[in-house]
């Protein structure tokens, strides 16, 4: 009976909703992978113990320093181990730190989860992360499957099912044994473990069918080079549509024959992976990108083995997956990350007047906090040199005509520019170029009506759509403000930011944010897809049917900032070309937490207040999290050990614990350094130099600019920490990276302030965790100690 109820409960979870009165959207999203016990992160001189490496001269080539260090780490027995330094490695001009990203190679094939990130400055190693495979490599691509391997997908689903049954047993024991557990009781149970049931639905809904398919259709050894069976099996697990699963299973050979491989990409830069492209893959919206790789899989004996996998980049309607599936039949899904969770300049012939927008100005979180005002195009001379409405003809995907003679830039009169493409998306599809945008004409004045009125439920959507001009204008304005703000704190072209044209300043261009307003694919939600640098990020903002009239998420700045911040943290963690570092567990949770923290910091004022996330859109004073962010433990009691609670195994719940800890850190810095009325640095002079004013401390020599106040300093340390932390960081790694960022920026003057703030909620030096799982489970112990120098 218990298993029947569990199965019924799981079957009742739905992945998407439709209709104007739909509940909160629960988009199906896979996310899991192996937990590497051998991965390390070292962030201070006492931890960086080597075989013989010594710091080099301050003027030594940082990449050569990194190579010497890598060979030293690999040791004398592995000097011949192969690796490549990835092309997204870069030197941050604001800090002087060179971020070197390294990928392990075995027999010339990438170990997809074999990463090093090494941070170098003045010939010294500041910190490094290392998840290289350290075992004995296979002599050639393995054509058989070891029976001792613990494949993450099967383990994940078995453990998650067991955990749900355990939670049900606990719940049932609290009920009256004389009263059957009817539907109202089961709804109580669902409310208490809804995050687990949705995770089970997302990751394990068709797991059994996929396994059955693999065993029924074993692949011949000679077919190991054909990725199509592995890809079809992944689509069975990935699609949210039961009819699609039935179609794949019933017409397997038909689908296999329709899927064509278009060949490798011959234009791949030297030293980078080559790819195949698979067309006509069911339930995808673009050809699937594929390449062969190795992945590290734990065995039952505690060792780690390399498994040959096909790596896929799968773009679907609501997801954009980076997946690894074993190349040997029966195919097993090894890991999945959903990217959906940041030279001379040609001068135009005639100067362009800045645009103006009737919007809720920067700092007003939502319509409950203030009125709309007319704001100027506040582009930053460093972040957006040609403004928000100009981009080169050559980089404009919408321009199909013949450009004027000798013209370089195109000036647009709509919400379409170098940083952001903003438009409606009522159909909820992936097309965006021809979607509707407000056109201000030659006036460049985006002043449109916004006065929603209550109406009958059947007309609520029409009312919302009637003010689409104001909606898209607001989304365009907020997104550009975020772009310019994050740029000044280090999210530049080299670091992988979102721009169609990079002004010859490095990085990969062609990736402005596609920002969809009133997206028709759901209600009561928002999401951001972050593929690697050079491919457009995609933000989808939804209407919220939580009130009459509907509330438009585009008008709640905190939601837009949170979503955009997924692009920031994904591009900065592990390097601009690696979007797979924040997929699940504590890493995925921090991806949510950084967004909450930055959104809350941006709206905060000198007069301290607690803040709830998403309160206006959700029409709930407490917002969409368990607690508001607060200094008061009776208001928000979250500690590191809170992550062990059953309700805290989803990435959003994990994230709010991280955001709460960062909130305390920022308040400690504000208490020490004061509060700045603006987070925006001063505009640069015409020669590009930045005045210190009251924003930065006086410049000393070639030292980087140091924000003077606590709130600006906390934003800088958090963003700088993202660059210093390893791929798939833990709370401990991210904490240590922030403390290291302060060491590099201020000489460590906030060392004890930071440690004391982290320790307030259990993230002190004696905190620990055992048995961490891909969904965030484990046994954690709060630690409230600080380093001896801070006592």
Which runs of at least 5 residues are low in confidence (pLDDT < 50)? 1-25, 178-184, 266-270, 342-349
Strand content: 15-25%
Total count of helical runs of at least 4 residues = 17
Note the main sheet: 6 strands, antiparallel
Can you tell me the number of structural domains? 4
Structural class call reads alpha+beta
* Rounded mean pLDDT score: 85
Q: What percent of residues adopt helix (DSSP H or I)?
A: 25-40%
The strand count comes to 25
* Radius of gyration based on Cα positions: 26 Å
Question: How far apart, in Å, are the first and last alpha carbons?
Answer: 57 Å
User: What CATH architecture label of the largest domain applies?
Assistant: Roll
Task: Tell me the CATH topology of the largest domain.
Answer: Elastase, domain 1
Instruction: State the name of the first-level CATH class of the largest domain.
Output: Alpha Beta
In one word, what is the shape? globular
């Amino acid at each position: 009976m218990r298993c029947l109820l569990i199965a019924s409960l799981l079957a009742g979870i739905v992945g998407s909703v439709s209709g104007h009165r739909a509940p909160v959207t629960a988009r199906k999203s896979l996310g899991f992978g192996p937990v590497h016990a051998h991965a390390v992160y070292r962030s201070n001189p006492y931890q960086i113990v080597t075989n013989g490496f010594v710091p080099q001269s301050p003027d030594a080539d940082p990449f050569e320093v990194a190579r010497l260090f890598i060979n030293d780490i690999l040791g004398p027995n592995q000097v011949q181990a192969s690796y490549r330094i990835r092309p997204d490695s870069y030197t941050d001009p604001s800090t002087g730190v060179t971020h070197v990203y390294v990928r392990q190679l075995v027999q010339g094939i990438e170990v997809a989860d074999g990463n090093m990130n090494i941070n170098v400055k003045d010939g010294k190693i500041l910190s490094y992360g290392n998840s290289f495979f350290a075992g004995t490599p296979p002599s050639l691509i393995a054509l058989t499957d070891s029976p001792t391997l613990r494949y993450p997908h099967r383990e994940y689903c078995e453990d998650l099912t067991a955990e749900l049954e355990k939670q049900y047993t606990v719940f049932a024991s609290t009920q009256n044994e004389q009263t059957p557990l009817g539907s109202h009781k089961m709804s109580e149970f669902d409310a208490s473990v809804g995050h687990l049931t949705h995770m089970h639905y997302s990751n394990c809904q068709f797991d059994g069918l996929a396994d059955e398919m693999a065993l029924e259709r074993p692949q011949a050894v000679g077919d190991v080079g054909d990725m199509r069976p592995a890809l079809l099996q992944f689509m069975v697990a990935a699609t949210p549509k039961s009819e699609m699963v039935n179609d794949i299973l019933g017409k397997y050979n038909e689908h296999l024959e329709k899927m064509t491989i278009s060949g490798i990409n011959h234009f791949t830069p030297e030293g980078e992976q080559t790819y195949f492209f698979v067309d006509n893959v069911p339930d995808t919206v673009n050809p699937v990108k594929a390449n062969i790789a190795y992945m590290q899989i734990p065995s039952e004996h505690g060792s780690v083995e390399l498994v040959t996998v096909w790596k896929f980049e799968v773009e679907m309607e609501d997801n954009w997956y980076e997946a690894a599936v074993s190349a040997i039949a029966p195919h097993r899904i090894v890991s999945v990350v959903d990217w959906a969770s940041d030279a001379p300049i040609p001068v135009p012939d005639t100067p362009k007047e800045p645009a103006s927008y009737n919007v809720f100005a920067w700092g007003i979180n939502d319509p409950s906090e203030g009125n709309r005002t007319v704001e100027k195009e506040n582009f930053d001379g460093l972040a957006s040199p040609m403004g928000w409405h100009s981009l080169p003809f050559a980089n404009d995907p919408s321009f199909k005509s013949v450009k004027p003679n000798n013209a370089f830039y195109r000036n647009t009169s709509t919400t379409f520019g170098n940083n952001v493409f903003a438009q409606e998306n009522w159909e909820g599809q992936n097309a965006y170029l021809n979607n509707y945008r407000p056109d201000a004409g030659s006036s460049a004045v985006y002043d449109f009506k916004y006065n929603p009125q209550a109406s009958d439920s059947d007309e609520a959507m029409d009312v919302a759509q009637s003010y689409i001009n104001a909606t898209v204008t607001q989304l365009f304005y907020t997104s550009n403000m975020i772009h310019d703000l994050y740029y000044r704190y280090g999210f530049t072209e080299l670091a992988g930011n979102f721009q169609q044209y990079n002004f010859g300043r490095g990085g990969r261009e062609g990736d402005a944010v596609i920002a969809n307003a009133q997206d028709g694919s759901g209600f009561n939600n928002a999401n951001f897809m972050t593929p690697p640098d050079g491919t457009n990020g995609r933000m989808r903002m939804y209407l919220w049917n939580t009130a009459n009239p509907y509330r438009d998420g585009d008008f709640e700045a905190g939601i837009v900032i949170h979503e955009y911040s997924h692009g920031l943290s994904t591009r900065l963690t592990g390097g601009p070309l690696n979007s797979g570092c924040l997929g699940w567990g504590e890493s995925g949770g921090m991806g949510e937490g950084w967004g909450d923290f930055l959104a809350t910091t941006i709206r905060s004022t000198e007069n301290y207040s607690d803040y709830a996330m998403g309160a206006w859109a959700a029409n709930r004073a407490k917002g969409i999290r368990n607690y508001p962010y607060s200094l008061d433990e009776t208001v928000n009691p979250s500690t590191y050990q809170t992550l062990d609670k059953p309700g805290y195994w989803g990435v959003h719940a994990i994230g709010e614990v991280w955001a709460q800890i960062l909130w305390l850190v920022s308040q400690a810095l504000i208490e020490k350094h004061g509060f700045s009325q603006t987070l925006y640095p001063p505009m640069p002079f015409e020669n590009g130099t930045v005045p210190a004013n009251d924003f930065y401390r006086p410049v000393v020599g070639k030292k980087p600019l140091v924000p003077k106040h606590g709130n600006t300093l906390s934003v800088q340390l958090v963003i700088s920490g993202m660059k210093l932390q390893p791929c798939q960081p833990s709370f401990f790694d991210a904490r240590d990276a922030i403390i290291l960022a302060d060491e590099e920026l201020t000489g460590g003057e906030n060392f004890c302030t930071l440690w004391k703030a982290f320790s307030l909620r259990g993230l002190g030096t004696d905190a620990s965790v055992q048995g961490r799982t891909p969904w965030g489970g484990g046994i954690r112990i709060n630690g409230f100690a600080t380093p001896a120098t801070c006592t």
